[in-house]
Amino acid sequence: MTGLSGSGKTTIGIALENELHKNGLLTQILDGDIIREGINKELGFSDDDRKENIRRIAEVTKLFVNCGIITICCFVSPTEEIRNLAKTIIGEKDFVEVFVNASLEVCEQRDVKGLYAKARKGEIKDFTGINAPYQAPLHPAIEIKTNELNVEESVKLILDHLKLNN
Ligand code: ADP
Question: For residue 103, is pLDDT > 70?
């Protein structure tokens, strides 16, 4: 899942995981905040570090996918180049690009973690949407407009795409 901070990736990821569990499916969520505190804790937000962040996540994802585990990746992944890198590593047939789309205004209003306020004050540099670019995906497999849909409806779009709704 790609989208601005606060667009809804983690919220949808957790709700999606709950639904997949009801279908008896194995899942693993990989989330930016957690990964950046753990295996990628030395990485920052420069272009090179963002690329390395996603490269490692994609390699880890491939290992999970090889075990038959549906891996839900919640990362801003702000450029076409970075997302293509992930797709290449994971393999096209196992990669579903979900664009969690909420406008910058909506995300900033939500400001779930207070990061937009900090970025506006100049306390965070390279913050996507404020002082670092976000390239919206051109052809996502799924686009979820989280200022129009609630979480349940958002999850349903993904389940429908995966043909997992009874
Ligand atoms: P991200 O992981 O993209 O940074 P979060 O999931 O942490 O975003 O935060 C998204 C916020 O938006 C949450 O407070 C969530 O309750 C809210 N929200 C409102 N509508 C939706 C929706 N349809 N899907 C997901 N989140 C939503």
Answer: yes
Instruction: Tell me if 2 is assigned to some domain.
Output: no
Whether residue 3 is contained in a domain is answered as no
Q: Which domain holds residue 92?
A: 9-159
- Total domain count, the chain: 1
| pTM of the predicted model over 0.85 | yes
For residue 166, the model assigns a pLDDT of 53
Whether 149 is in the pocket of ligand 1, judged by its Cβ within 6 Å, is yes
In a domain, 164, yes or no: no
103 is catalytic: no
Q: Are 110 and 66 in contact (CB under 8 A)?
A: no
- Identified catalytic residue from 5, 7, 77, 154: 77
| CATH number (domain holding residue 89) | 3.40.50.300
Cβ distance 141 to 161 under 8 Å? yes
Cα separation, 157 vs 7, in Å, equals: 16
Q: Is the pLDDT of residue 52 over 80?
A: yes
